[in-house]
Amino acid sequence: MKGLFALIKVICRKALPERQLIIFLALKIQSQFLFAQQSLWPADLKFKADTLNFGRIADTTVIKDFYILTNYGADTVQITDVQPSCGCLVVDWDKHKITTGQTARIQVVFRPENRMGSQQKTFAVYVRYGNHTFTKTLYWIGTVAKAHTHMPHFTHRQGNMVSDKNYFRFGMLHQEKASQKIRILNQSTKPVSLLNASLPERGINIHFSKSTLNAGDTATITLTLTPHDIPFHGVYKDSLFIRTTDISVPEKKFYIFADLLNAQDFQYDSLSAPVLKFLPDSIYIHYTSTSEKINIEFSITNIGRSDLIIYNLTHSLSGCTHLKQNKLTLLPGQSTDIRLQCDSISEKGMLRKSICVYSNSYKTYSSCIDAIINLQ
Q: pTM for this one?
């Protein structure tokens, strides 16, 4: 670029005075056009993701992640510089040149400390491709909260939105009104609006804590069920669709489970009923490799005063089987151990899965335990 402007000066000195301005402006416009062409990012250089979303974390958590650049072109590529927009981000990158089919990584370490709320940071990445330098902007988004506040694990993805679960699960209901909640997170770089919901029954109402979620924002969806307004008795299963402005998946699907009882269904009271209890009441497992076999173990105890009948056990873990007969009877005070063996789990990251036991337990046809599995 310096050589081009030196040439402009030589031409202007030799030209007539009245033509010097015209020549200078023409060459300057041409040089700007050539510079703009060089600034366009080559189609042969592709990042695995232009935006990394770290989700919702505590302000004491340090996050590390990678942007991965792949060279699909014929020339060699070298990352020459990476400039973050915030001092809270520490970057390092592969300095060597990469040829066709090879990859280079940019490592990002984020220390949120006192940076609360929605985070939207950028990186200016400079690469040398062939004989030219190109620039691209990468994005880093998420939400930071105080360490002592409750932060759900968002594991169920639908388009650019993720939720802590994909179902509203009610226990046994007679005439009493009940509510269940789901937390939802916007992982896109643009605002998403929750427009409306298709409610399957007139006895079901929905409420959004906020109608528009900016990038990294969360909202609570509350579903209220009034049993006497629903013309149905027994195990109730249905689907709920929430329409949004998320162009990737405009409609979000959630499931509704409930056991709606009439007066004849109450054949025992709470003093003589079977009651199911999990031990422990939640499970947390950390594994550093998805190729390892994972064993999930817990016990079920009947702490009630009559026989507890276990009809079935279901779970949302792929690649896992449970070693238990389908129907089992526990006497009052009796326990049984449940073991799930997982040969392989294809997912990665922080997973929140439910393991549900269907029984005649008082007021809870289906009892569920949360299994939080951290796969690195």
A: 0.41
